[in-house]
Design a protein that fits this description.
Fumarase C, Chain B, domain 1; mainly alpha; single chain; Adenylosuccinate lyase; 4 strands; lyase; 21 helices
Length: 483
Protein backbone atom coordinates (compact mmCIF):
# COMPACT_ATOMS: atom_id res chain seq x y z
CA UNK A 1 0.00 0.00 0.00
CA UNK A 2 1.42 3.38 -0.98
CA UNK A 3 2.01 6.12 1.58
CA UNK A 4 2.63 9.85 1.41
CA UNK A 5 6.32 8.98 1.12
CA UNK A 6 5.65 7.51 -2.32
CA UNK A 7 4.20 10.76 -3.70
CA UNK A 8 6.05 13.99 -4.43
CA UNK A 9 5.18 16.90 -2.16
CA UNK A 10 6.39 20.42 -2.67
CA UNK A 11 8.94 21.27 0.04
CA UNK A 12 6.96 24.44 0.70
CA UNK A 13 4.25 22.17 2.04
CA UNK A 14 6.31 19.45 3.67
CA UNK A 15 9.10 21.59 5.17
CA UNK A 16 8.69 25.34 5.19
CA UNK A 17 5.22 26.93 5.34
CA UNK A 18 2.88 27.27 8.32
CA UNK A 19 -0.15 25.07 8.89
CA UNK A 20 -2.52 28.03 8.58
CA UNK A 21 -1.16 28.97 5.17
CA UNK A 22 -1.14 25.37 3.99
CA UNK A 23 -4.76 25.00 5.05
CA UNK A 24 -5.77 28.19 3.25
CA UNK A 25 -4.76 26.66 -0.08
CA UNK A 26 -5.81 23.12 0.77
CA UNK A 27 -8.37 21.23 -1.34
CA UNK A 28 -10.77 21.12 1.61
CA UNK A 29 -10.70 24.87 2.10
CA UNK A 30 -10.91 25.56 -1.62
CA UNK A 31 -13.95 23.41 -2.26
CA UNK A 32 -15.60 24.33 1.03
CA UNK A 33 -15.23 27.96 -0.04
CA UNK A 34 -16.96 27.12 -3.31
CA UNK A 35 -19.83 25.66 -1.29
CA UNK A 36 -19.93 28.77 0.89
CA UNK A 37 -20.14 30.89 -2.25
CA UNK A 38 -23.03 28.78 -3.57
CA UNK A 39 -24.76 29.17 -0.21
CA UNK A 40 -24.31 32.96 -0.22
CA UNK A 41 -25.69 33.10 -3.75
CA UNK A 42 -28.74 31.00 -2.88
CA UNK A 43 -29.40 32.96 0.33
CA UNK A 44 -29.21 36.25 -1.55
CA UNK A 45 -31.42 34.99 -4.36
CA UNK A 46 -33.98 33.83 -1.80
CA UNK A 47 -33.85 37.19 0.01
CA UNK A 48 -34.63 38.89 -3.29
CA UNK A 49 -37.69 36.74 -3.88
CA UNK A 50 -36.55 33.79 -5.95
CA UNK A 51 -38.28 30.45 -5.19
CA UNK A 52 -35.69 28.68 -3.04
CA UNK A 53 -36.95 26.57 -0.14
CA UNK A 54 -35.88 26.81 3.48
CA UNK A 55 -34.90 23.13 3.30
CA UNK A 56 -32.53 23.87 0.44
CA UNK A 57 -30.78 26.60 2.43
CA UNK A 58 -30.60 24.49 5.60
CA UNK A 59 -29.15 21.50 3.78
CA UNK A 60 -26.56 23.68 2.07
CA UNK A 61 -25.58 25.21 5.42
CA UNK A 62 -25.23 21.77 6.97
CA UNK A 63 -22.75 20.65 4.31
CA UNK A 64 -20.57 23.67 3.54
CA UNK A 65 -17.45 21.79 4.68
CA UNK A 66 -16.67 19.06 2.19
CA UNK A 67 -16.01 15.63 3.70
CA UNK A 68 -13.46 13.04 2.62
CA UNK A 69 -16.00 10.70 1.02
CA UNK A 70 -17.39 13.63 -0.98
CA UNK A 71 -13.97 14.24 -2.50
CA UNK A 72 -14.22 10.77 -4.01
CA UNK A 73 -17.63 11.56 -5.48
CA UNK A 74 -16.32 14.79 -7.00
CA UNK A 75 -13.22 13.07 -8.38
CA UNK A 76 -15.27 10.41 -10.14
CA UNK A 77 -17.60 13.03 -11.56
CA UNK A 78 -14.71 15.18 -12.78
CA UNK A 79 -13.12 12.16 -14.45
CA UNK A 80 -16.36 11.68 -16.34
CA UNK A 81 -17.24 15.32 -17.04
CA UNK A 82 -13.75 16.87 -17.33
CA UNK A 83 -15.10 19.88 -15.44
CA UNK A 84 -14.13 20.47 -11.83
CA UNK A 85 -16.86 22.99 -10.97
CA UNK A 86 -19.70 20.84 -12.29
CA UNK A 87 -18.21 17.84 -10.50
CA UNK A 88 -18.49 19.71 -7.22
CA UNK A 89 -21.97 21.00 -8.03
CA UNK A 90 -22.97 17.34 -8.39
CA UNK A 91 -21.20 16.29 -5.15
CA UNK A 92 -22.79 19.16 -3.19
CA UNK A 93 -26.22 18.34 -4.59
CA UNK A 94 -25.92 14.76 -3.38
CA UNK A 95 -25.60 15.83 0.26
CA UNK A 96 -28.05 18.75 -0.12
CA UNK A 97 -30.72 17.17 -2.37
CA UNK A 98 -33.31 19.87 -1.64
CA UNK A 99 -30.89 22.36 -3.17
CA UNK A 100 -29.60 20.21 -6.04
CA UNK A 101 -31.69 22.04 -8.60
CA UNK A 102 -30.74 25.58 -7.58
CA UNK A 103 -27.04 25.27 -6.76
CA UNK A 104 -25.05 27.51 -9.14
CA UNK A 105 -28.26 29.18 -10.44
CA UNK A 106 -27.29 31.82 -13.00
CA UNK A 107 -23.60 31.50 -12.18
CA UNK A 108 -20.58 30.63 -14.27
CA UNK A 109 -17.58 28.62 -13.11
CA UNK A 110 -15.65 31.77 -12.31
CA UNK A 111 -18.28 32.73 -9.78
CA UNK A 112 -16.76 29.94 -7.68
CA UNK A 113 -13.16 29.83 -8.80
CA UNK A 114 -12.40 33.54 -9.10
CA UNK A 115 -14.35 34.72 -6.09
CA UNK A 116 -12.69 31.97 -4.06
CA UNK A 117 -9.27 33.03 -5.31
CA UNK A 118 -9.96 36.63 -4.29
CA UNK A 119 -10.91 35.40 -0.83
CA UNK A 120 -7.66 33.43 -0.67
CA UNK A 121 -5.63 36.43 -1.84
CA UNK A 122 -7.24 38.55 0.87
CA UNK A 123 -7.05 35.99 3.67
CA UNK A 124 -3.47 35.10 2.75
CA UNK A 125 -2.42 38.73 3.07
CA UNK A 126 -4.24 38.86 6.40
CA UNK A 127 -1.95 36.04 7.53
CA UNK A 128 1.24 37.52 6.12
CA UNK A 129 0.94 41.20 7.03
CA UNK A 130 0.84 40.79 10.85
CA UNK A 131 3.76 38.34 10.63
CA UNK A 132 5.75 40.98 8.78
CA UNK A 133 4.85 43.52 11.47
CA UNK A 134 6.26 41.14 14.10
CA UNK A 135 9.56 40.86 12.24
CA UNK A 136 9.82 44.65 11.96
CA UNK A 137 9.08 44.98 15.67
CA UNK A 138 11.79 42.48 16.60
CA UNK A 139 14.34 44.17 14.35
CA UNK A 140 13.38 47.55 15.80
CA UNK A 141 14.12 46.31 19.31
CA UNK A 142 17.44 44.91 18.09
CA UNK A 143 18.32 48.21 16.40
CA UNK A 144 17.60 50.16 19.57
CA UNK A 145 19.63 47.75 21.70
CA UNK A 146 22.70 48.15 19.47
CA UNK A 147 22.25 51.70 18.24
CA UNK A 148 25.49 52.82 19.94
CA UNK A 149 27.75 49.87 19.06
CA UNK A 150 30.22 51.05 16.37
CA UNK A 151 31.07 48.64 13.58
CA UNK A 152 32.79 48.82 10.24
CA UNK A 153 30.71 50.10 7.38
CA UNK A 154 31.40 48.57 4.00
CA UNK A 155 31.15 50.10 0.56
CA UNK A 156 32.28 48.15 -2.51
CA UNK A 157 32.96 45.29 -0.10
CA UNK A 158 35.75 47.33 1.51
CA UNK A 159 35.90 48.90 4.98
CA UNK A 160 34.38 52.37 5.01
CA UNK A 161 33.22 54.97 7.55
CA UNK A 162 31.96 53.46 10.79
CA UNK A 163 28.25 52.85 11.31
CA UNK A 164 26.57 51.08 14.22
CA UNK A 165 25.08 47.62 14.44
CA UNK A 166 21.68 49.17 15.10
CA UNK A 167 21.95 51.62 12.21
CA UNK A 168 22.64 48.77 9.80
CA UNK A 169 19.55 46.91 11.06
CA UNK A 170 17.52 50.04 10.29
CA UNK A 171 18.44 49.65 6.63
CA UNK A 172 16.67 46.29 6.69
CA UNK A 173 13.72 47.72 8.60
CA UNK A 174 13.30 50.57 6.15
CA UNK A 175 13.00 48.14 3.24
CA UNK A 176 10.60 45.92 5.20
CA UNK A 177 8.43 48.96 5.90
CA UNK A 178 8.19 49.48 2.15
CA UNK A 179 7.07 45.86 1.83
CA UNK A 180 4.53 46.35 4.60
CA UNK A 181 3.05 49.37 2.83
CA UNK A 182 2.99 47.51 -0.49
CA UNK A 183 1.16 44.53 1.01
CA UNK A 184 -1.28 46.72 2.93
CA UNK A 185 -2.12 48.65 -0.22
CA UNK A 186 -2.51 45.48 -2.30
CA UNK A 187 -4.81 44.06 0.36
CA UNK A 188 -6.89 47.24 0.62
CA UNK A 189 -7.22 47.44 -3.17
CA UNK A 190 -8.72 43.96 -3.46
CA UNK A 191 -12.33 43.85 -4.55
CA UNK A 192 -14.76 41.00 -5.08
CA UNK A 193 -15.69 39.73 -8.55
CA UNK A 194 -19.24 39.20 -7.39
CA UNK A 195 -22.04 37.85 -9.59
CA UNK A 196 -21.25 38.80 -13.18
CA UNK A 197 -22.20 35.85 -15.38
CA UNK A 198 -20.34 34.28 -18.27
CA UNK A 199 -18.81 37.38 -19.85
CA UNK A 200 -19.25 39.91 -17.07
CA UNK A 201 -22.53 41.39 -18.34
CA UNK A 202 -24.80 39.82 -15.67
CA UNK A 203 -27.15 38.75 -18.48
CA UNK A 204 -28.13 35.46 -16.80
CA UNK A 205 -29.10 37.22 -13.58
CA UNK A 206 -31.03 39.87 -15.47
CA UNK A 207 -33.02 37.06 -17.06
CA UNK A 208 -33.63 35.36 -13.70
CA UNK A 209 -35.00 38.62 -12.28
CA UNK A 210 -37.15 39.33 -15.36
CA UNK A 211 -35.15 42.34 -16.45
CA UNK A 212 -35.04 43.99 -13.00
CA UNK A 213 -31.67 45.76 -12.98
CA UNK A 214 -32.05 46.89 -9.37
CA UNK A 215 -32.38 43.33 -8.12
CA UNK A 216 -29.32 42.24 -10.09
CA UNK A 217 -27.31 45.02 -8.44
CA UNK A 218 -28.74 44.12 -5.04
CA UNK A 219 -27.75 40.49 -5.59
CA UNK A 220 -24.19 41.54 -6.39
CA UNK A 221 -24.06 43.73 -3.30
CA UNK A 222 -25.55 41.09 -0.99
CA UNK A 223 -23.10 38.37 -2.03
CA UNK A 224 -20.18 40.80 -1.87
CA UNK A 225 -21.12 41.79 1.68
CA UNK A 226 -21.54 38.16 2.79
CA UNK A 227 -18.04 37.44 1.47
CA UNK A 228 -16.62 40.22 3.64
CA UNK A 229 -15.63 42.63 0.88
CA UNK A 230 -16.46 46.33 0.89
CA UNK A 231 -17.06 46.44 -2.84
CA UNK A 232 -17.05 44.42 -6.05
CA UNK A 233 -15.66 45.29 -9.45
CA UNK A 234 -18.25 47.02 -11.59
CA UNK A 235 -16.46 45.76 -14.69
CA UNK A 236 -15.19 42.24 -15.22
CA UNK A 237 -14.93 39.73 -18.00
CA UNK A 238 -15.65 36.10 -17.25
CA UNK A 239 -12.78 36.40 -14.77
CA UNK A 240 -11.54 39.17 -12.54
CA UNK A 241 -8.68 40.94 -14.28
CA UNK A 242 -5.46 38.96 -13.96
CA UNK A 243 -3.83 42.32 -13.38
CA UNK A 244 -4.89 41.78 -9.75
CA UNK A 245 -2.59 38.75 -9.57
CA UNK A 246 0.19 40.92 -10.97
CA UNK A 247 -0.42 43.58 -8.34
CA UNK A 248 -0.36 41.17 -5.42
CA UNK A 249 2.44 39.11 -6.94
CA UNK A 250 4.69 42.12 -7.41
CA UNK A 251 4.24 43.15 -3.78
CA UNK A 252 5.13 39.66 -2.60
CA UNK A 253 8.00 39.35 -5.08
CA UNK A 254 9.44 42.64 -3.88
CA UNK A 255 9.31 41.30 -0.34
CA UNK A 256 11.21 38.24 -1.58
CA UNK A 257 14.04 40.45 -2.81
CA UNK A 258 14.20 42.11 0.62
CA UNK A 259 14.47 38.68 2.23
CA UNK A 260 17.40 37.68 0.05
CA UNK A 261 19.15 40.99 0.64
CA UNK A 262 18.81 40.66 4.44
CA UNK A 263 19.86 37.02 4.32
CA UNK A 264 23.01 37.88 2.37
CA UNK A 265 23.94 40.59 4.88
CA UNK A 266 23.51 38.16 7.78
CA UNK A 267 25.62 35.55 6.01
CA UNK A 268 28.39 38.09 5.46
CA UNK A 269 28.25 39.13 9.11
CA UNK A 270 28.48 35.47 10.11
CA UNK A 271 31.50 35.08 7.84
CA UNK A 272 33.11 38.02 9.65
CA UNK A 273 32.10 36.44 13.00
CA UNK A 274 30.43 39.70 14.07
CA UNK A 275 26.78 38.61 14.17
CA UNK A 276 25.28 35.14 13.91
CA UNK A 277 21.83 33.69 13.55
CA UNK A 278 20.64 31.36 16.35
CA UNK A 279 22.52 28.07 16.56
CA UNK A 280 20.95 25.34 18.65
CA UNK A 281 22.79 23.14 21.15
CA UNK A 282 22.53 19.94 19.13
CA UNK A 283 22.58 21.55 15.68
CA UNK A 284 25.13 20.17 13.22
CA UNK A 285 26.73 22.59 10.80
CA UNK A 286 28.53 20.08 8.61
CA UNK A 287 28.54 16.30 8.33
CA UNK A 288 32.33 16.37 7.89
CA UNK A 289 33.58 19.57 9.56
CA UNK A 290 32.24 19.32 13.10
CA UNK A 291 33.37 22.82 14.11
CA UNK A 292 31.22 24.63 11.55
CA UNK A 293 28.34 26.96 12.42
CA UNK A 294 26.75 27.37 9.02
CA UNK A 295 24.12 30.14 8.68
CA UNK A 296 21.57 27.66 7.28
CA UNK A 297 18.55 29.75 8.23
CA UNK A 298 19.83 32.79 6.35
CA UNK A 299 20.90 30.62 3.43
CA UNK A 300 17.41 29.15 3.28
CA UNK A 301 15.96 32.66 3.50
CA UNK A 302 18.02 33.66 0.47
CA UNK A 303 16.93 30.57 -1.42
CA UNK A 304 13.21 30.99 -0.75
CA UNK A 305 13.40 34.75 -1.25
CA UNK A 306 14.99 34.18 -4.64
CA UNK A 307 12.19 31.80 -5.60
CA UNK A 308 9.57 34.25 -4.37
CA UNK A 309 10.91 37.21 -6.33
CA UNK A 310 10.80 35.19 -9.55
CA UNK A 311 7.17 34.03 -9.22
CA UNK A 312 5.51 37.32 -10.30
CA UNK A 313 6.75 36.62 -13.84
CA UNK A 314 4.05 33.93 -14.06
CA UNK A 315 1.37 36.48 -13.24
CA UNK A 316 2.75 39.01 -15.72
CA UNK A 317 2.84 36.47 -18.54
CA UNK A 318 -0.61 35.14 -17.70
CA UNK A 319 -2.20 38.58 -17.59
CA UNK A 320 -0.73 39.68 -20.91
CA UNK A 321 -1.79 36.45 -22.67
CA UNK A 322 -5.51 36.60 -21.82
CA UNK A 323 -7.84 36.71 -24.84
CA UNK A 324 -10.80 39.07 -24.83
CA UNK A 325 -13.22 37.93 -22.08
CA UNK A 326 -10.99 35.00 -20.99
CA UNK A 327 -8.99 31.97 -22.02
CA UNK A 328 -8.25 28.90 -19.95
CA UNK A 329 -4.47 29.02 -20.28
CA UNK A 330 -4.51 30.96 -17.02
CA UNK A 331 -5.90 28.05 -15.03
CA UNK A 332 -3.12 25.51 -14.51
CA UNK A 333 -0.38 28.06 -13.94
CA UNK A 334 -2.44 29.96 -11.35
CA UNK A 335 -3.17 26.74 -9.45
CA UNK A 336 0.60 26.43 -9.04
CA UNK A 337 1.96 29.96 -8.80
CA UNK A 338 -0.56 31.69 -6.51
CA UNK A 339 -0.25 29.18 -3.64
CA UNK A 340 3.53 29.16 -4.14
CA UNK A 341 3.64 32.95 -3.82
CA UNK A 342 1.90 32.81 -0.47
CA UNK A 343 3.61 29.70 0.89
CA UNK A 344 7.02 31.08 -0.09
CA UNK A 345 6.33 34.44 1.56
CA UNK A 346 5.02 32.66 4.64
CA UNK A 347 8.14 30.49 4.84
CA UNK A 348 10.35 33.58 4.55
CA UNK A 349 8.50 35.27 7.39
CA UNK A 350 8.87 32.21 9.61
CA UNK A 351 12.62 32.30 8.98
CA UNK A 352 12.88 36.05 9.56
CA UNK A 353 10.96 35.75 12.81
CA UNK A 354 13.19 32.92 13.99
CA UNK A 355 16.45 34.62 13.08
CA UNK A 356 15.57 38.07 14.42
CA UNK A 357 14.42 36.53 17.69
CA UNK A 358 17.86 35.14 18.43
CA UNK A 359 20.61 37.23 16.86
CA UNK A 360 23.97 36.64 18.56
CA UNK A 361 26.25 39.70 18.53
CA UNK A 362 29.99 39.49 19.28
CA UNK A 363 31.04 42.99 20.44
CA UNK A 364 34.69 42.05 21.02
CA UNK A 365 35.08 40.74 17.48
CA UNK A 366 33.43 43.88 16.16
CA UNK A 367 35.72 46.02 18.32
CA UNK A 368 38.83 44.20 17.09
CA UNK A 369 37.85 44.69 13.46
CA UNK A 370 37.14 48.37 14.10
CA UNK A 371 40.52 48.79 15.78
CA UNK A 372 42.23 47.14 12.82
CA UNK A 373 40.90 49.81 10.46
CA UNK A 374 40.38 52.80 12.72
CA UNK A 375 43.93 54.15 12.51
CA UNK A 376 43.55 54.61 8.76
CA UNK A 377 40.15 56.25 9.22
CA UNK A 378 41.60 58.58 11.85
CA UNK A 379 44.24 60.05 9.55
CA UNK A 380 42.06 63.01 8.56
CA UNK A 381 41.31 63.75 12.23
CA UNK A 382 45.03 63.59 12.99
CA UNK A 383 45.79 66.06 10.18
CA UNK A 384 43.12 68.47 11.47
CA UNK A 385 44.53 68.26 15.00
CA UNK A 386 47.99 69.05 13.69
CA UNK A 387 46.75 72.17 11.92
CA UNK A 388 45.07 73.33 15.14
CA UNK A 389 48.47 73.06 16.84
CA UNK A 390 50.03 75.33 14.21
CA UNK A 391 51.60 72.67 12.02
CA UNK A 392 51.41 72.76 8.23
CA UNK A 393 48.44 70.88 6.79
CA UNK A 394 50.52 69.78 3.77
CA UNK A 395 53.43 68.60 5.92
CA UNK A 396 51.04 66.68 8.17
CA UNK A 397 49.40 65.07 5.13
CA UNK A 398 52.74 63.91 3.75
CA UNK A 399 53.93 62.56 7.10
CA UNK A 400 50.73 60.56 7.68
CA UNK A 401 50.70 59.37 4.05
CA UNK A 402 54.14 57.84 4.34
CA UNK A 403 53.39 56.23 7.69
CA UNK A 404 50.03 54.88 6.44
CA UNK A 405 51.64 53.15 3.48
CA UNK A 406 54.30 51.64 5.75
CA UNK A 407 51.61 50.34 8.11
CA UNK A 408 49.57 49.00 5.20
CA UNK A 409 52.57 47.06 3.92
CA UNK A 410 53.07 45.72 7.43
CA UNK A 411 49.49 44.38 7.41
CA UNK A 412 49.28 43.10 3.84
CA UNK A 413 52.77 41.83 3.13
CA UNK A 414 53.85 40.61 6.55
CA UNK A 415 50.47 39.68 8.03
CA UNK A 416 51.09 41.78 11.13
CA UNK A 417 48.79 44.09 13.08
CA UNK A 418 48.13 47.64 12.02
CA UNK A 419 50.89 49.63 13.77
CA UNK A 420 50.14 53.06 12.30
CA UNK A 421 49.50 54.61 15.72
CA UNK A 422 52.80 53.31 17.07
CA UNK A 423 54.54 54.86 14.07
CA UNK A 424 52.75 58.17 14.72
CA UNK A 425 53.83 58.10 18.36
CA UNK A 426 57.46 57.46 17.38
CA UNK A 427 57.54 60.28 14.83
CA UNK A 428 58.71 63.62 16.33
CA UNK A 429 56.54 65.64 13.93
CA UNK A 430 53.40 64.50 15.77
CA UNK A 431 54.67 65.26 19.29
CA UNK A 432 52.31 68.29 19.71
CA UNK A 433 49.19 66.10 19.39
CA UNK A 434 50.20 62.92 21.20
CA UNK A 435 48.15 63.79 24.28
CA UNK A 436 45.05 64.02 22.04
CA UNK A 437 45.64 60.82 20.12
CA UNK A 438 43.44 58.52 22.21
CA UNK A 439 40.51 60.94 22.02
CA UNK A 440 40.97 61.20 18.26
CA UNK A 441 40.57 57.41 18.06
CA UNK A 442 37.36 57.03 20.06
CA UNK A 443 35.12 54.94 17.73
CA UNK A 444 31.98 56.68 18.96
CA UNK A 445 33.20 59.92 17.36
CA UNK A 446 33.27 58.25 13.93
CA UNK A 447 29.63 57.11 13.71
CA UNK A 448 28.12 60.52 13.07
CA UNK A 449 24.44 60.69 14.01
CA UNK A 450 23.84 56.95 13.66
CA UNK A 451 22.50 56.50 17.23
CA UNK A 452 20.24 59.52 16.92
CA UNK A 453 19.02 58.36 13.51
CA UNK A 454 18.10 54.95 14.94
CA UNK A 455 16.22 56.56 17.81
CA UNK A 456 14.30 58.94 15.57
CA UNK A 457 13.50 56.29 12.94
CA UNK A 458 12.23 53.66 15.37
CA UNK A 459 10.24 56.12 17.48
CA UNK A 460 8.52 57.77 14.51
CA UNK A 461 8.26 55.84 11.24
CA UNK A 462 8.47 52.36 12.72
CA UNK A 463 6.19 53.09 15.66
CA UNK A 464 3.54 54.64 13.41
CA UNK A 465 3.62 51.73 10.95
CA UNK A 466 3.23 49.15 13.72
CA UNK A 467 0.37 50.85 15.60
CA UNK A 468 -2.39 48.89 13.80
CA UNK A 469 -0.77 45.64 14.92
CA UNK A 470 -0.19 46.36 18.62
CA UNK A 471 -2.53 43.62 19.86
CA UNK A 472 -0.90 41.10 17.54
CA UNK A 473 2.61 42.14 18.59
CA UNK A 474 1.74 41.74 22.26
CA UNK A 475 0.99 38.05 21.73
CA UNK A 476 3.64 37.26 19.13
CA UNK A 477 5.88 34.26 19.68
CA UNK A 478 9.14 33.12 18.16
CA UNK A 479 8.52 31.00 15.08
CA UNK A 480 9.89 27.47 15.35
CA UNK A 481 11.36 25.78 12.30
CA UNK A 482 10.05 22.34 11.40
CA UNK A 483 13.45 21.42 9.96
Amino acid sequence: MSSSNDVYQTPLNSRYASNEMKYLFSPRNRFSTWRQLWLWLAESQKELGLPISDDAIEQMKAHTTIQDDEFKVAAEEEKRRRHDVMAHVHAYGQVAPAAAGIIHWGATSCYCTDNADLIFLRDGLDILIPKLAVVIDKLSAFAQQYKDLPCLGFTHGQPAQLVTVGKRACLWIQDLLMDLRNLERARDDLRFRGVKGTTGTQASFLQIFDGNHDKVEQLDELVTKKAGFNSAFIISSQTYSRKIDVDVGNALGSFGSTCERIGIDIRHLAMLKEVEEPFEKDQIGSSAMAYKRNPMRSERLCSLGRHLQNLPKDALDTYSAQWFERSLDDSAIRRISIPELYLSADACLILLNNVTSGFVVYPEVIKRRVNDELPFMATENIIMACVKKGLSRQDAHEEIRVLSHQASDNVKKQGKDNDLLDRVRRTPFFAPILDELDALLDPSTFVGRAPQQVEKFTSTEVKKALQPYESYLANAETSALSV
